[in-house]
Write a structure and sequence with these properties.
The complex is a heterodimer of chains A (about 260) and B (about 600). Chain A has about 260 residues and is α/β, with parallel strands linked by helices. In chain A, the strands form three sheets. A nine-stranded mixed β-sheet of chain A has the order 11-10-9-12-8-1-6-7-13, sandwiched between helices. In chain A, strands 2-5 form a two-stranded antiparallel sheet. The chains are: A alpha/beta (about 260), B alpha+beta (about 600). Chain A: It comes from Salimicrobium jeotgali.
């Protein structure tokens, strides 16, 4: 089976976010594999173990993303591809990423593509589904279980806490939700083996794309932090009085009632 | 070891200058090193920490399960050769694993005793049959190991052991009798490295299995700290150990014992550095949250002073420890496959750096005691409560100054070994001391410039001269009886250790600054400036006390005059520098460089 994983390098979940000059400050920040993409890598390895084949991890980004690709290789992926846009693109959006990936997959024949449900940085959740549309293959989002039998694929997906069971066919794109699996830690032998696994680097040129072809369709106007949380208020007195006071505050002060 | 002359000699830092490029620093870690550290960290926070309370409660089934999982990840095989089922990584990798395990409290002892003093005797000194039989299973965690040297009557005096071994009549087994005390991992270890005297005199190491007849363990000890590790007595009552389980040469067990202890010492220092970093993180985070007088206590200068002092000290120790790891890596790396399989060559390399091992052990364990003490203090009354991690860290820290050789014994080892090396002509200490005496009368004080680290290099240069002045005088004055002047020896050891730490911090910072400029390494510069100034003050005090003890009258006045010349300098404003250090720590929320 030709198994592909879409992977994004994101801020570590423990990073404190600050903004300077209208951009998110990335000086000295730690980066990780987007946690939802980690589920995708893990599931891809599990599918390979069960059905054979090869796992290729693909990312669009700059050279720094090599670290995250190496980590995926250390977990057990076989190959990785970095589509390096550093020299060609200043800004990009989901459209940009999808167009690049579309061109990449036109030259390859995936049986299944696994992606994260959403990236924890920009959280659009668009790249997976939009890519599937352009490749004209079915997609299922937020999956929590998958089993493949020949061409038939049975999936459980998370629908706001409920489970929906879906039957579909290969080739297919899925996006992975928490609960699908417990991603493994890269083992020490895995880390040493990853050094020797292929990490192919290509540019949009190699995909016969021009800058204009992938120009962003959206423009980010402003980035700002959420308002700082105010200190809470403790309402004193008997329960009856407390309730009255609370209702009055909700009506008059915060105007939510 | 034909090219031993090219190897950096142990203790040579005291009399020679070292180039920054020649030392290994944490900035040299590769991507693989970082990934190995990350896997270890994720394993500790994801799998071990949720079980720590249970393990502290002696529910050791969790320890066993976690050790198996650690084995699957390769975390038990870093020092084990590939042909025996290990991962065979460099010393930096295994050191990073040790550092990251430190956060697991007592469980880190279970891991450390297994991979270190438990497994390494077989890795370094086992024959190929022994390696084949034990190492693959030790690397996976199928078998767990322990190290049994201490006895009720013999701790630091290891060769005073009472445990005996006698060959049986058939010549097939040694029969061991005796008790080994405070054995880490004893509740569940399958393999014990045991030292016993054959026929009451030939001190020899044995691989003893729990399943051998006559082997048992006593009840679990009730300890002050590291409660998450198992500690019991190993009881040998006519224990029958097959002759093929003699480890190394008969009568030469001390070679194994002392060299394994050396390795244990620098590994202990690595763990101490790891824990000190955790103490800083907890302190900074707590101090930013805790408010008194409507102000986070982190904004009080005294709190800043505490975290900055601990951090600067951590930086110096971290630099010294990884420099030592680098020395082992460089010298072990020179050994051929054949030499690596021959215990003698390995023992020579380890013994070469006995001074560095003892120094990092002493200074690392005292750094950690300082760090956890201040962490509890910053937490105030909460730090005294068991719900807070610092309470456990405070208790866990104390043993580090005692085991792997008390800090007193380790301090004695330092000047003792220096003198030995000087006598053998390996280190030109006496020559340099003599030369110094000649030049000191005409020596003019220098004015170092303002460029980064100029002042620190100047203080380092003078600190080395002070060391020669004090040790030269002590050797001259006390001669053969120097070993009875323990207070003076401790001063000399402390001066030596301060110099090793100072130099390691300075060279590490220089290496980083040379590579990408001073601006990028402002925190490293601050740590170095503060540590070097404070260390230099301590060196001056130790030297002064030593001179006063050894000399009197006009001679003393002359020696003190020389010391004054060597200590003349414009001191750094450490109060200001520490406030600057704390800004960085606050922003990062943890120790950072």
């Amino acid at each position: 089976m030709n198994i592909y994983v879409l992977l994004k390098r994101t801020f570590d979940t423990e990073e404190k976010i600050s903004i300077s000059n209208g951009k998110i400050e990335d000086e000295g920040a730690e980066y990780i594999i987007n946690p939802y993409d980690e589920y995708a890598v893990e599931e891809a390895i599990n599918l390979k173990d069960a059905h054979g084949g090869e796992v290729t991890v693909v990312t669009v980004g700059d050279e720094e993303a090599e670290k995250q690709l190496r980590t995926a290789l250390a977990m057990g992926a076989d190959k990785s591809v970095l589509i390096n846009t550093e020299d060609d693109l200043e800004e990009g959006d989901q459209y940009t990423t999808v167009r690049i990936l579309e061109a990449y997959f036109k030259e390859n024949e995936p049986d299944i593509i696994l992606a994260g449900n959403v990236a924890i940085d920009e959280a659009s959740g668009q790249v997976g589904p939009r890519l599937a549309e352009r490749l004209d293959i079915p997609f299922v989002t937020t999956i929590t279980d998958i089993s493949i039998d020949g061409e038939t694929v049975n999936i459980e997906r998370d629908v706001e806490g409920d489970v929906e069971k879906v039957e579909t066919t290969l080739p297919l794109l899925v996006t992975c939700q928490q609960g699908l699996n417990e991603p493994r830690y890269p083992s020490l032998p895995g880390i040493m083996k990853a050094k020797k696994k292929p990490l192919e680097e290509i540019e949009i040129d190699d995909l016969d794309l021009e800058e204009d072809d992938v120009e962003a369709k959206t423009k980010t106007l402003e980035i700002f932090l959420p308002p700082e949380k105010q200190a809470g208020k403790i309402i004193e007195g008997e329960p009856d009085e407390q309730v009255k006071e609370l209702v009055s505050l909700l009506k008059n002060e915060s105007k939510v009632l | 070891m034909s090219d031993v002359k090219d190897m950096i000699k142990g203790g040579s830092f005291l009399v020679e200058d070292v180039e920054a490029e020649d030392i290994i620093t944490p900035e040299d870690f590769t991507e693989e090193h970082k990934m190995i550290a990350k896997t270890t960290e994720d394993f500790i926070t994801g799998d071990v920490l949720p079980k720590v309370d249970k393990i502290e409660n002696h529910e050791f089934e969790h320890s066993l399960e976690l050790m198996k999982k650690a084995g699957e990840l390769g975390l038990l095989g870093a020092d084990v050769p590939e042909e025996y089922g290990g991962v065979q990584l460099d010393k930096i990798s295994s050191s990073l694993i040790t550092e990251k395990f430190a956060r697991a409290g007592g469980f880190s002892l279970t891991h450390g005793a297994h991979v270190g003093i438990g497994s390494l005797p077989i890795v370094f000194f086992g024959n190929s049959d022994q390696k084949k039989k034990y190492l693959p299973k030790l690397a996976t965690g199928e078998l767990l190991a322990a190290y049994a040297l201490t006895e009720p009557g013999s701790g630091s005096d290891a060769r005073g052991a009472k445990t005996t071994a006698k060959l049986n009549e058939a010549g097939t087994h040694y029969v061991l009798n005796g008790e080994k005390q405070w054995i880490t991992n004893s509740a569940f270890a399958d393999v014990f490295i045991v030292y016993a005297k054959i026929d009451g005199e030939k001190f020899t190491a044995f691989i003893v299995e729990r399943e051998h007849p006559g082997v048992s363990t006593g009840p679990e000890e009730k300890k002050m700290g590291i409660k998450g590790s198992s500690t019991r007595t190993l009881i040998l009552e006519d224990a029958e150990v097959p002759v093929e389980n003699v480890l190394g040469e008969i009568g030469r067990g001390h070679i194994i014992a002392f060299n394994i202890l050396n390795v244990g010492r620098y590994k202990l220092a690595i763990g101490s550095v790891g824990s000190a970093k955790r103490a800083i993180e907890l302190s900074v985070n707590y101090a930013q949250e805790r408010k008194q007088f409507d102000t986070p206590i982190m904004s009080f200068p005294l709190i800043k002073e505490k975290v900055a002092s601990v951090a600067a000290n951590t930086y110096a120790n971290e630099s010294a420890v990884y420099r030592t790891v680098g020395l082992f890596e460089q010298s072990m790396g020179r050994l051929s496959e054949e030499e690596l399989n021959d215990g003698k060559a390995v023992a020579n390399v380890i013994a070469e750096y006995a001074i560095e091992c003892s120094l990092t052990k002493v200074f690392g364990s005292e750094l950690l005691d300082f760090a956890v003490d201040e962490a509890v203090q910053i937490h105030g009354g909460y730090g005294f409560m068991q719900e807070y991690e610092v309470e456990r860290m405070y208790r866990d820290s104390r043993i580090n100054r005692i085991f792997e050789g008390t800090n007193e014994i380790n301090r004695m080892i330092v000047p003792g070994n220096l003198v030995k090396k000087a006598m053998k002509g390996e280190l030109p200490i006496f020559e340099k001391a003599k030369k110094l005496q000649e030049e000191i009368m005409t020596m003019m004080p220098e004015e170092p410039g303002d460029a980064p680290l100029e002042q620190e290099f100047y203080l380092l240069k003078n600190a080395k001269k002070i060391a020669l002045l004090a040790s030269g005088l002590a050797a001259q004055k006390y001669g053969e009886k120097l070993d009875q002047e323990q207070e003076v020896l401790v001063n000399l050891a402390d001066i030596t250790g301060e110099i090793f730490n100072m130099e390691s911090a300075i060279l590490r910072t220089k290496k980083a600054v040379d590579k990408d400029g001073a601006e990028k390494h402002s925190q490293k510069l601050l740590y170095t400036e503060v540590y070097v100034q404070e260390a230099f003050n301590r060196i001056e005090a130790h030297a002064k006390e030593t001179l006063i003890a050894a000399e009197e009258g006009d001679d003393l006045r002359m020696m003190l005059g020389a010391l004054r010349k060597l200590t003349r300098h414009n001191p750094v404003n450490v109060i200001k520098k520490k406030r600057e250090i704390s800004v960085g720590l606050e922003k990062a929320g943890k120790y950072f460089v």
